[in-house]
Design a protein that fits this description.
The chain is of the alpha/beta class and 392 residues long. 46% of the residues lie in helices and 12% in strands.
């Protein structure tokens, strides 16, 4: 899960990043990229085109056109490039192999992301957790419980670094991560609505520092961007876009968390809501979501069972290496190594197939075959409800 400390120079990649940065500072959206490529042949050729060619193409708004040919744009690009050369600083462009594929699939992905920390986490299976900034003690406790469960089964918790439920989600994830012996599993991702040189709210500065060390903070906004109201709903589509599902813990009827839930539904993500007291205004939004089709979640296991198929899809890039060329004489040894490898995730407390899929990042078919072998050899025992526990 650890990314390289400093970005490796790559002339072609650097040129592509500079092109995307120019479009980014001109506030060109991803939806325009296909039209730009169709008109100019490629993004690279487009960025080499003259002002007159762009004007004739009529692809940009007057304000975007003005920004693209502003004399200060090269200075802004260089500032971003300098920032990206610092330790654990990254700029991921749409189409970059490091850009999270789940996010790239939404209708309006950011054309680039600024990231600080362990950038490889962005491709891990993620669960978004959102809720009220004015959370109750009950909501904070429940959120930390859910977050710790998700980390223990190998998922990454994604939220927005706001006060209340967001903060509890990040803190719960970090607590579980710090207690884990295996530091290759997931931790937490913060998606913020400011530039990465700012922390909002300022009270979460220490938390942001911890996330940069163990997880990653991302933003689509340029350095120096202040926390403006319209940016928070925009940010929410990234939280849901990165995640296989979104859990809402506490939300009033006019909560921004409901925007995240709506975006998640539009993006084809599963939405879960934690019920609360019918008398609590903090639960009204969650109850409304449940009436609208969100799944009621009383435990992390409820969420994981519903997300298993989506998690498998998100893990397709992390399947076991191709062993088709392995010598037949090595097959038995290889199979035994698989069995031993799977055993490391099976403890004396029962574990489900969904949990094993997230922890091991193996295809379900491989897990099932190894479980059968381990059961026959007497090393594990099948329990009720599709769970297994270790015997030796």
């Amino acid at each position: 899960m650890t990314s390289s400390a400093v970005n490796t120079p790559n002339t072609k990649a650097d040129a592509a990043r500079r092109d995307f940065l120019k479009l980014h500072f001109a506030k060109v959206k991803a939806i325009k990229l296909d039209a730009i490529e169709a008109r100019f042949g490629s993004i690279s050729q487009a960025m080499s085109a003259s002002q007159a060619d762009w004007q004739a193409a009529d692809l940009l708004t007057p304000r975007q056109f003005e920004r693209l040919f502003d004399s200060k744009i090269d200075e802004l690009v260089q500032q971003a490039e300098d920032w990206a050369q610092e330790e654990n600083h990254h700029i991921l462009c749409l189409g970059d192999e490091r850009y999270p594929s789940m996010l790239a699939e939404i209708s309006d992905p950011p054309i680039l992301l600024y990231a600080m920390g362990q950038v490889n986490l962005l491709k891990d299976p993620q669960i978004g957790i959102v809720g009220s900034r004015n959370a109750t003690k009950y909501g904070i406790g429940i959120t930390k419980d859910f977050a710790q469960y998700f980390i223990k089964v190998g998922m990454t918790v994604t939220s927005g670094l706001a006060s209340g439920i967001d903060q509890a989600a990040h803190e719960g994830a970090l607590t579980a991560y710090e207690a884990a012996s295996d530091k290759t599993q997931g931790t937490t991702i913060a998606v913020v609505a400011t530039g990465l040189d700012r922390v909002y709210p300022a009270s979460n500065r220490e938390l942001a520092h911890k996330i940069c060390q163990a997880g990653v903070i991302v933003s689509e906004y340029p350095l120096g961007t202040k926390p403006l109201a319209h940016q928070f709903p925009e940010r929410n589509r990234i939280i849901s876009g990165l995640s296989v599902g979104v859990l809402v813990v506490e939300a009033a009827l006019k909560s921004g968390s409901l925007i995240t839930a709506r975006l998640a539904m539009e993006q084809g993500r599963e939405v879960f809501a934690v019920p609360g007291s019918i008398n609590s205004p903090h639960s009204k939004g969650c109850h409304q979501l449940i009436r609208q089709g969100a799944k009621l979640a009383e435990s992390g296991q409820d969420v994981l069972e519903d997300l298993s198929s989506l998690i498998q899809l998100s893990l397709l890039d992390n399947v076991l290496p191709d062993t088709s060329q392995v010598d037949v004489r090595d097959n038995k040894a290889t199979e035994r190594e698989k069995e031993k490898s799977l055993l490391q995730w099976i403890e004396y407390e029962p574990v489900s197939l969904d949990e094993l899929a997230v922890l091991s990042k193996w295809p379900v078919s491989d897990i099932q075959s190894q479980l059968l072998i381990l059961e026959v050899t007497g090393e594990i025992e099948a329990m009720s409800a599709g769970r297994w526990r270790r015997l030796k």
